[in-house]
Please model this.
Amino acid sequence: MQELKICETILIKSIEVEGHNAVQLPTMGPRRTYKPLSSAKSWYEYFKDLNGTDSIEFVKPDFTPRDSNPNSVAVCNMLKLASDSVSTVLTALAALELTIPDLSQRDRLTIHVLGGTARELMILRLNEEFLHLLPNLRLVTVGYIGPDTLSETGKGQLLPSECCQYCKAAGRKRQVFLRKRLYHECDEASLFPEFPPDLIMACNSGHADEETESWRPTLERILAKDIPAVFTTFTEQEAIDEQTVFGRMGAHFVQTCEKNRWHGLVPKIENFGARYEVFYYNHYTYIVKGKK
Model:
């Protein structure tokens, strides 16, 4: 509970300073050589070897504070909050590494994210991590699609997304489009030719628990497109239930349910009557691609 209180204090400070409640700590600039995300075996190694933040010196490899100094404790919890923010990007990158053999040579990538909630749109700048961690990448396009998306860009319209000075000087770009509708309601004749996805992603969707009927046509479309799709859940049981749904639909599993190395590190607590359950953002993951 003390850890949650410290995280909450940092979030309040983030709102006061940045105007939003997400701690964002992107890498300072693009890598010159490709180093797979899979080479980092933990969040500690990501922040130390790929992200390069100096703050990691206040943290031990098991991601606990280096010592009892209040600064070390605060920095450790700040990095945990930063992990929550970049978790989705790294989860997507891990899925891309697993499903695209020549990923390091790609100069363009497009990802369809089923969601587009206010939280996801708050951390758009972290999409630049794709450019920073994939040196050959010149353009990354991320589409946010779902009924909770705050607005919609018209056909062919893209939201301007500022890049860091290094990417800008190299002519590298990131762009975003929005669709305020269910995935299966999008005009297939325009969405897929215009923005053909390399990966489809749905984070903590709960499609096996809530609005299961409305999800069914979307799941069918995902399988019909035969494109890798990564799903995340808060708990292992949710992932098992969702796998069961896909199994009945004849899905091919590229990766079955497993704990996500890149899940957020800030614990969330749910009160279920007399018991409490702790879970994490993007805690478990699995990947489907087409049908058997």
